[in-house]
Amino acid sequence: MSDGFDQLLAFQRTTEALASIAGRLDWDRETVMPKGAAEQRSEEVAALETVLHERRTDPRIGEWLDVAADYAEDAEDERSLALIARDYTRASRVPARLATEIARVTSLAQGIWAEARAKDAPDDFLPTLSEVVMLKREQGAALADGGDVYDALLDDYEPETSATEIAAIFDAMRPRLVALREAILGAETVPRALSGTFPQEGQLRLARGVATAFGYDWTRGRLDLAVHPFSSGGWQDARVTTRVVETDPFNCVYSTIHEVGHASYELGIDPDYALTPLGRGVSMGVHESQSRIYENQLGRSRAFTGWLSGRMADAFDDFAGGDADAFYGTVNRVNPGYIRTEADEVHYNLHVMMRFDLERDLIAGRLSVEDLPEAWNARFLRDFGVAVDRPANGVLQDVHWSVGLFGYFPTYALGNVYAGCLDRAMRADLPDLDAELARGKAHPATEWLRERVQRHGALLPPRELIEAATGAAPSPEPLLDYLEDKFGDLYAL
Amino acid sequence: MSDGFDQLLAFQRTTEALASIAGRLDWDRETVMPKGAAEQRSEEVAALETVLHERRTDPRIGEWLDVAADYAEDAEDERSLALIARDYTRASRVPARLATEIARVTSLAQGIWAEARAKDAPDDFLPTLSEVVMLKREQGAALADGGDVYDALLDDYEPETSATEIAAIFDAMRPRLVALREAILGAETVPRALSGTFPQEGQLRLARGVATAFGYDWTRGRLDLAVHPFSSGGWQDARVTTRVVETDPFNCVYSTIHEVGHASYELGIDPDYALTPLGRGVSMGVHESQSRIYENQLGRSRAFTGWLSGRMADAFDDFAGGDADAFYGTVNRVNPGYIRTEADEVHYNLHVMMRFDLERDLIAGRLSVEDLPEAWNARFLRDFGVAVDRPANGVLQDVHWSVGLFGYFPTYALGNVYAGCLDRAMRADLPDLDAELARGKAHPATEWLRERVQRHGALLPPRELIEAATGAAPSPEPLLDYLEDKFGDLYAL
């Protein structure tokens, strides 16, 4: 090995450890930080970001890279160098002035968005959104260096994947999802909703129980409450959070399973990759595939909900979930609605796909921010069959665009597509999985996913990883087949 | 203001924020970190320390300091520059090789010490301690730059104070403490000890109650459990920890009050000083004065324990603390013993003072590590009137020397001396304080201390600060008078 190679990896290791600290500070802020500490925390985070930015754009990285390539000994070395080179190039392409301006505008924009949503007043937010879109276009153009601007933004969340490839997948999904949605809404059989009150203590005990069922490693994690559930960290310390709504225990249970999916991915990565460019989930789409397969294909399966209904009966007095079949229907009840985050498995991807198309148009300049509310409403009516009742339930509902997250939305649906592919392959490999799930044992699935997906970290590009894991190129067919089968049964279609 | 002045303060602000993050990581490790994350955390801490060391020895600090002095506008500016210059000089004097070697040896030494203590085998530890002493002598000599080596080490914990000054105070204290100790142990009246079991939940409720009584700001703090209680942070986020021993509720209550004292100091500092060199407690001695006056002169007073006995009766079924006078005696019961951390107000300083003398001799080379056990035992017999029964109760009991903390011990007793001075002045200013304490209201004391001591942060050197707060140069008289009065009454001497 050359000095350049060793120095580069040592430098990178320190940078990765510092980035990991930034994650700890976020966890702390959302779970345990005293409420009066916001200003101090933002100074701490800014200080760390200053150091991280200096390191990520340190010109020595370029010098080390020039000599290091000759000393890569295997595919892991080569991939590490390629990822370092990509991050360095991207970090160096965005002028400091622009990065600072984006940070400034988006931190203000989030507050303006929240207020506009509360007041149901899109005009209060749209001028600010225009500013954000302009800045993100500028950033995308700098990053793209002549390539596609949206793809350059997408690369932060779903690297090595083009919007064209994603659009091809989504366009193939839409007709079947719309048709399924219409069939369900016209069905005569409708599972009943759950009613009652479910105390926090019982919900949290249940949440710990389901996390354990999925094999969550408590020696390397913990569960806390947060307003918006998230997972955080990796390697030896990947924590999850959940929330409790006393009238809706499924919120707590499925938030927990979802976040345990994310955390398990990070905990499943080969520990030899820790603090290297390989030691993290390769993309948001693959990350979401892990959280979604845990939550939906496994956690909302007939087998697992059968076990869960027993645990809920243990946890809550007078639990009236009905028999296991009825309970399965209740868990999977389809609720048409305006809000993405409350959507069921059938509606969710339709939400995401319309945001993807709209944000591509915004970044490309085919759609102006001024015309966005009208475009939103028209598209919603077309895909969902109902008109948006008010902006807070429409164009104002998501925080993402206000904070500059363009290119993030498609990873949600891509994750579902990947989850569908993985579920099909896993079921073929593990014929007894349902019998295990019915006994509350989801860890054989975790083990399969660890072996096929998780342990590789960022070694393979996302679509190659899914293809290597499943033996087939990613396609929406398995997800659509799964949804049509599942909801066809449930709604007697 | 000059560019150099502004650049220096901005650079310092980022460094202070990064140092604050290091404190967060320590808090996290001791309270909420999953137990499998030790290796990762040590990489994170090492990465942050690397960055902090680079910043603290950045040669630009010297350049900025050269031009900044002309632009200081007031005493605060001047003090800030002096503190930055001191830290820069000290950081630059220790060769990187030596700093790394000390970090390496002490991190191993702590484990070797713990094992030797568990096995009661001093010979397993002494060779390692010799190494630590050699390295600390070398570090002290580098820092002293021709001055006194021990003073140079002391400066990390009690700046602007010499060992000679401390020795003069301690030497004046010893005879009166020894005499008091002998009188108490010969007394016929002996307060009874508390017996019973006190469940964790009640102890923690009580701990929250006493923290509130002292005016602890819960919007800028929180209380958690830790094996060794500590406080952490400042400005907008100063957290405390406590521990629960089910047979000894005083452990939890007085650990909490002690740590609330430390946290209140940091929270009481003028917020304009945040993230500047003025924005922290000026020395460990002054810090300990705050924790000790909260714990002892206030928390163990007849007035406050009267209120506390009522709260304990509320918190625990069948609480048998006796009447308020008997309870006061129980809280302040004198227990001769070998262990510093379990010592009462009378014995505590005797413990500290012997360590101070021994460590000065070790650093000066007047005492070899080989001869330390014998010196320890001889001194203990002289000051405490009993022979040490085994090394784990003697020379092996404290972690400090193994991790290289030479110069730290005297700050414990100095803090008690300062607490005595402050208590005398505060009682003169607040004649109704006992009436307030008897109603569980200790916050008038917090307010007095905030005004006289806490808000100044590091603006004044430690002894000047105490003199400005009390109107008299620090002296052990008030502490000794307080102890003789209090224990004279309790033991009917």
UniProtKB/TrEMBL annotation, chains A, B:
Active site, UniProt feature: 259
Cofactor mode of binding and number, as noted: Binds 1 zinc ion per subunit.
Cofactor: Zn(2+)
Native source species: Paracoccus suum
Function of the molecule: Broad specificity carboxypetidase that releases amino acids sequentially from the C-terminus, including neutral, aromatic, polar and basic residues.
Biological-process GO terms, alphabetical: proteolysis
Pfam families to which the protein is assigned, alphabetical: Peptidase_M32
Protein name as annotated: Metal-dependent carboxypeptidase
Catalytic activity from the UniProt record: Release of a C-terminal amino acid with broad specificity, except for -Pro
Keyword terms: Carboxypeptidase, Hydrolase, Metal-binding, Metalloprotease, Protease, Zinc
Record-stated family: Belongs to the peptidase M32 family.
Superkingdom of the organism of origin: Bacteria
The EC number(s) this enzyme carries: 3.4.17.19
Lineage: Bacteria, Pseudomonadati, Pseudomonadota, Alphaproteobacteria, Rhodobacterales
Class of this enzyme: hydrolase
Entry GO MF terms: metal ion binding; metallocarboxypeptidase activity
InterPro entries for this protein: Peptidase_M32_Taq
CDD domains the UniProt entry points to: M32_Taq
UniProt cross-references to PROSITE patterns, sorted A to Z: PEPTIDASE_M32 (PS52034)
Binding site for Zn(2+): 258, 262, 288
